[in-house]
Design brief:
CATH architecture of the largest domain: Alpha-Beta Barrel
Shape: globular
CATH class of the largest domain: Alpha Beta
Structural class: alpha/beta
Largest sheet: 8 strands, mixed
Number of helices: 12
Bound molecules: zinc ion
Radius of gyration: 23 Å
CATH superfamily of the largest domain: Metal-dependent hydrolases
Number of strands: 19
Distance between the termini: 46 Å
CATH topology of the largest domain: TIM Barrel
Length: 418
């Protein structure tokens, strides 16, 4: 009798252990770091984490939830290191009008829609690069996500971002008109205070504009000195936060790198010498190719018909130089300039501009996770990692466009899309 009871107990407890298990059965897996896809494996998920990866079995207990992903490749949830959830495409409403005429309530509500679209497109983490005139609404949106008020990817926010006095827009108003700016001005005398204030208001990291279009002819010119940028990065670092820089020209990219930032955003006219310095200092590059193409299209460019405008030929040349040098390239699209949910356009362009599909996949998953200092939790299909996974039809190494039509999205314990 006692033996029987023990037998029952073991049977019951093994069922109980499997009761909450979800078994994903994809054709192949990209784990975030390997050079090839793996076939014949099942991914077992429990309590929002990846419990184990094992050989596929013929049958599974009826108590477990089995998700058939035949013909599909399973990948880590995608990460975009450069988003603006508080912006929407400039061909709908200009940046100036979004900053000056849209209420913060409207912008927050739009962000809710944008986040939902991003998650359904397979993006489970976004690093948001500044509220663009909406104060700390990004911090509030992040808190709403964390409380489950709205559905969307994990959001890592910059808050207001720091610009040099006189450099940033909106511009073109009479001197007696007090115009709210798209970011917070600060200079040598108050950079420590402003950086600390942004941290105090909830910024997860600091964004600094190392250049802006304020040259005599509206061209991009450096804003801060190396010492000023260093003041920001050291103040941020003391609090456990890192700094990233908007920088488009070699001179401002160099200043930002020497000033201690961790990623360069845009870098559209970066040259070999600059990328070599970045590689030496371990600074990564977020090229935001999709934004460059989107803005060119808004200005009348028809891709495939018209010759490349300077903006596009510049970023193609920079991308080639960066690859030759071997600088770490992250996947950051500047989505918001174009439609939310179209983030994977960036990945398609990275392949089009010459990066191998496997490197692009690594960039959008494990490399981006590492740059977020979250390499122990996200960006990999690996035991113990958070169960943030997506599946696409077929083999994305043969057709990167499959990432634009994500079929399955799992976010922890919730199946968002199947
Ligand atoms: Zn941006």
């Amino acid at each position: 009798m006692r033996k029987f009871a023990i037998g029952i107990f073991i049977f019951w407890s093994s069922l109980a252990a499997q009761a909450n298990e979800t078994i994903l059965l994809p054709e192949a897996i990209f784990d975030g770091t390997s050079d090839t896809l793996v076939e014949g494996k099942a991914v077992v998920v429990n309590n929002g984490r990846i419990l184990r990866i094992e050989d596929k079995r013929d049958t599974y207990p009826s108590s477990s939830q089995v998700i058939d992903l035949s013909g599909m490749t399973l990948l880590p949830g995608l990460i975009d290191l450069h988003s603006h959830v508080l912006l929407h495409p400039y061909d709908e409403t200009s940046w100036n009008d979004q900053v000056l005429k849209e209420s913060w309530a409207e912008r927050a509500l739009r962000a809710g829609n944008h986040l939902k679209a991003s998650l359904h497109a397979g993006y489970t983490t976004l690093r948001d690069l500044g509220s663009e005139g909406a104060g700390y609404v990004d911090v509030g949106v992040r808190q709403a996500l964390e409380k489950g008020v709205i559905q969307g990817p994990r959001l890592i926010v910059a808050g207001r971002a720091i610009v040099a006095t006189g450099s940033y827009g909106p511009k073109g108003f009479a001197e007696h008109v007090d115009v709210p700016l798209g970011a917070e001005p600060a200079d040598a005398g108050d950079l420590v205070r402003v950086t600390r204030d942004q941290i105090g208001h909830g910024a997860d990291f600091i964004k600094v504009y190392a250049d802006y279009r304020w040259g005599p002819n509206g061209e991009a010119m450096p804003t801060f000195s190396v010492a000023e940028i260093q003041t920001i990065t050291e103040t941020a670092r003391a609090s456990g936060r890192y700094t990233v820089a908007h920088a488009t020209t070699p001179e401002s990219m160099k200043r930002a790198v020497l000033g201690g930032v961790e990623t360069i955003e845009h870098g559209s006219t970066g040259d070999t010498e600059t990328f070599e310095l970045m590689k030496e200092k371990g600074v990564a590059w977020c090229p935001t190719l999709a934004a460059g193409e989107a803005i060119s299209m808004y200005q009348g460019w028809t891709k495939g018909t018209d010759p490349d405008p300077k903006r596009v030929s510049d970023q193609k040349a920079a991308f080639q130089a960066a690859q030759e040098v071997g600088v770490t390239i992250c996947a950051g699209s500047d989505v918001g300039v174009f439609d939310h949910g179209d983030n994977a356009w960036e990945l398609e362009l990275m392949v089009e501009y010459g990066m191998s599909p496997i490197d692009v996949l690594k960039s959008a998953t494990s490399i981006n996770a590492d740059l977020l200092h979250m390499s122990d939790r996200i960006g990999r299909v690996k035991e113990g990692y958070l169960a943030e996974m997506i599946a696409v039809e077929g083999n994305p190494l043969q057709n990167i466009g499959a990432l634009k039509k994500v079929k399955f999205v799992l976010q922890g314990e919730t199946i968002i899309k199947n």
